[in-house]
Amino acid sequence: MRTQTDPLEQHVAVFGASGSGKTVLLSSFFGGAQEPAFRRTKGYGVRAEDKAQGRKLHRDYLGMRDGATAPTANRFASTEYAFVLEPTAEVPAGSRKTRKASTKPPKTLRVVWHDYPGEWFEQDPDSAQEAERRVETFRSLLSADVAILLVDGQRLAEHRGEEERYLKALLTDFRSGLSELRDDVLDRGRRLARFPRIWALGLSKADLLPELDVERFRDLVLGAAGGELAELHAVLRSYVEDPDALDVGEDFLLLSAARFESGAIDVSVRTGVDLLMPITAMLPFERFARWATNKQRASAVAENLLRFVGPVVGLVSSKRLKLPSPVGALVGFVVGELGTRGVKFLNKFVADKRKESAAEADFLGRLLEHFAEDLDHGVEQGVLRRGEA
To answer: If residue 117 lies in a helix (H) or strand (E), which one and from where to where?
Structure first.
């Protein structure tokens, strides 16, 4: 039985062709989070549940930072990484009294990163066992709310003037691979209520294409391979119950794990890596709230959307407001007459909560508020493009 102090849990699935930089991104994220400056400025730490995985990621990061050595790619390895985001030992200024009065441990955030091997989109399975492994791996990431499809910036740079050729081939590989899995993943053709409903495109190694901001990246993808993206969208719609609650190619992100130069790797210069956790934890909120408050939504789909939206609204709402339970209010919006007014109400909750002092908010509430602000900053800096919410 889950308790109030159980972690809020979110999953992200990351897809990318072989060599697209998934391993480097993950090492950069985790290793950077172990730096004292990160914990001091962010107010939270990142812990790997599997200590061996954590040591490996940290070692890879140190190899980049101190030895200019990039991590070795995990070819054909489908790996799941679980991280816990928890408060640092330091007590924020002005909150000692609050901390002393509370005996409950803080609620934390658990994030699970699912790494789907890029080689599986490029090569046919060589045995029935491998084919089954691919299906089981894909089933394991159905708990994710967000999926990120990586476009390899190095491959894109190598195809200057013929970017269309690379992008069309990449999206066709994704579409073909997902289409081939569908009949085995769906039980007797029954579509899924639980499925990643936000499929973002991320440009890895974005430092190799400094002329591209996120809007130009989006324009490049849509202009060069818009038809292939639409075909991928159609395949994903065929997986999911209520396919109108599905965004494919609406969100775009620039990613760079470090600055790679001849004989040197500068891990302090990176792009978008610090948005990976906010995208996983907070991006679904605005989208799911809109979808869940649609009165025509199928009940099973609405229930799954509320699974995430409800707890987040509860965390970011103001206890001083003399209003019904945020979760109950949200359910009321789903079955009532408020529609978009409900979403505006929830957004006002978030805005009100941001105005409260950090000392008065619990750890997870503060963390989610900071994540929401990080997403806003990412948009302002031309690193993130959010789909219409």
So the answer is: none
φ and ψ at residue 364, rounded to 5 degrees: -65, -40
Q: For the chain, give percent helix, strand, coil, nearest 5.
A: 50, 15, 30
Q: Side-chain half-sphere of 317: how many Cα atoms within 13 Å?
A: 20
Q: Quick check: pTM over 0.90?
A: no
**CA-atom Rg of the chain in angstroms:** 21
Strands 384-385 and 264-266 come out as unpaired
Q: How far is CA 379 from the centre of its chain?
A: 15
- Written as six digits, the tokens of 260 are 């790679």
Q: Is 356 helix (H, G, I), strand (E, B) or coil?
A: coil
Q: Is 148 a residue whose pLDDT tops 60?
A: yes
- Per-residue model confidence as pLDDT tens digits over 129-144: 888 888 888 888 888 9
Q: What is the pLDDT of residues 53-71, one digit of tens each?
A: 999 999 999 999 999 898 8
Determine the 3-state secondary structure of 6 from DSSP: coil
Please state the rounded mean pLDDT for residues 153-181: 94
* 283-292 helix and 340-355 helix, angle to the nearest 10 degrees: 150
Residue 294 phi, psi (nearest 5):
-80, 120
Strand order in the sheet with 8-16: 44-48, 79-87, 109-116, 8-16, 146-152, 198-204, 247-254, 384-385
Angle, vertex CA 198, rays to CA 194 and CA 204, nearest 5: 130
Report which of residues 95 and 320 the model is more confident about: 95
Distance CA 160, CA 301 (A): 42
Side-chain-side CA neighbours of residue 341 (13 Å): 7
Residues 6+ apart with CB under 8 A from 374: 274, 275, 278
Hey, what are 228's tokens? Answer: 């292939």
Burial of 89 (0-12, 13-18, 19+ CB in 10 A): exposed
Phi first, then psi: give them for residue 13, nearest 5 degrees. Answer: -110, 130
Per-residue tokens: 14: 């990351």
- 8 closest CA partner among 284, 249, 270: 284
Q: Please write the tens of the pLDDT for every residue from 329-367.
A: 444 444 443 344 444 554 554 455 444 434 335 888 888
Q: What is the mean pLDDT of the chain?
A: 81
346: nearest Cα among 313, 312, 386: 313
Question: Does residue 59 sit in helix, strand or coil?
Answer: helix
> Whole-angstrom Cα distance, residue 178 to residue 257?
27
